[in-house]
């Protein structure tokens, strides 16, 4: 493997067979990058891929360690009362919105090899609502969700669901600050202290399935929201820039959670948890209006 790549992404392999496995995966990904980017250059693809911190992982290894969302399938019996958005989908909203332009610029996050995307997406959605109300960014504890929501059905670093996370927050009543309960990419014993909780979670809401007009409305009315998405493909793993529009990305399954922060005429804008060197400085644009990768299958937020 190229030594510059090792240094740039802080890779260090103490066992030779592991290094060989990563070298093989890197070369296979590099071949895919060269092939795909030819299509990007000639205009037949709307997005580019590149070597990043995940480029030394085979697609199987990537899925095992980084894509661990448990699908929050809609449950008619329990979710119906939590559905929101009726009457909003035909509202008069701007043609574009980017919460970063309003000041909601949070630091790049890296979940590392802990399957904690569910915690990041819900936690950052709460941060977005606080920002909308107070015009302040208050960093909240993702680690609290990882450690403390297992009794409700999540699995720590082995994954979890958006619905389970929302139910946990409603029961626990609040979230601590990141500075008081910092992220360490491991599952630990729950150390939640209600006296240090600064956000009171009263209830939660989900959006109607496969309705991108309601997603647009809620983004304007409420703020950034958590969405589930299919991140299975190698092109997603290696995404670099542009509007992601891989025809092979099925909308029938989802396995990763991100934060929806905006949209323009052609795309949704998402924040991810794989560091600043993934995508567009930690963000992604994905084609809008076609339920690309199942982005509108399950979107939700906690009510603060």
TrEMBL record:
Record SMART domains: Inhibitor_I29 (SM00848), Pept_C1 (SM00645)
Endpoints of the signal sequence: none
Catalytic activity as recorded in UniProt: Specificity close to that of papain. As compared to cathepsin B, cathepsin L exhibits higher activity toward protein substrates, but has little activity on Z-Arg-Arg-NHMec, and no peptidyl-dipeptidase activity
UniProt domain Cathepsin propeptide inhibitor: residue ranges: 6-62
Gene Ontology terms: biological process: proteolysis
Domain of life, source organism: Eukaryota
The enzyme's E.C. designation: 3.4.22.15
One term of GO molecular function: cysteine-type endopeptidase activity
Every Peptidase C1A papain C-terminal domain range: 93-303
Gene from which this protein is expressed: similar to Cathepsin L1
UniProt similarity note: Belongs to the peptidase C1 family.
Name of the protein in question: cathepsin L
PANTHER family: CYSTEINE PROTEASE FAMILY C1-RELATED
Keywords linked to the UniProt accession: Hydrolase, Protease, Thiol protease
Record carries keyword Protease: yes
Enzyme class: hydrolase
Annotated Gene3D superfamilies: Cysteine proteinases (3.90.70.10)
């Amino acid at each position: 493997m190229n030594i510059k790549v090792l240094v740039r992404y802080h890779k260090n392999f103490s066992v030779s067979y592991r290094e060989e496995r990563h070298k093989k995966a890197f070369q296979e990904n590099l071949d895919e990058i060269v092939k795909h980017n030819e299509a990007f250059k000639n205009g037949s693809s709307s997005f580019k891929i590149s070597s990043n911190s995940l480029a030394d992982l085979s697609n199987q290894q990537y899925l095992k360690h980084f894509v661990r969302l448990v699908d929050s399938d809609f449950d008619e019996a329990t979710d119906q009362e939590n559905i929101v958005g009726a009457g909003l989908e035909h509202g008069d909203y701007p043609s574009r919105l980017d919460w970063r332009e309003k000041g909601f610029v949070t630091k790049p996050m890296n979940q590392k090899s802990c399957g904690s995307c569910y915690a990041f997406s819900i936690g950052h959605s709460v941060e977005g609502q606080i920002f909308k109300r107070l015009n302040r960014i208050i960093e909240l504890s993702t680690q609290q969700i990882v450690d403390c929501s297992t009794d409700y059905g999540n699995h720590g670093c082995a994954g979890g669901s958006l619905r389970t996370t929302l139910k946990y927050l409603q029961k626990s009543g609040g979230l601590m600050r990141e500075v008081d309960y910092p992220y360490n990419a491991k599952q630990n014993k729950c150390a939640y202290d209600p006296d240090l909780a600064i956000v009171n979670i009263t209830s939660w809401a989900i959006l109607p399935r496969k309705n991108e007009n309601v997603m647009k409305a809620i983004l304007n009315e409420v703020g950034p929201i958590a969405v589930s998405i299919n991140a299975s493909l190698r092109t997603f793993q290696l995404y670099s820039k542009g509007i992601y529009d891989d025809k092979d990305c099925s909308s029938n399954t989802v396995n990763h959670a991100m934060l929806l922060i905006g949209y323009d005429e052609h795309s949704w804008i998402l924040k991810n948890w794989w560091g600043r060197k993934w995508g567009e400085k930690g963000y992604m644009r994905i084609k809008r209006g076609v339920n690309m990768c199942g982005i509108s299958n399950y979107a939700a937020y906690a009510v603060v």
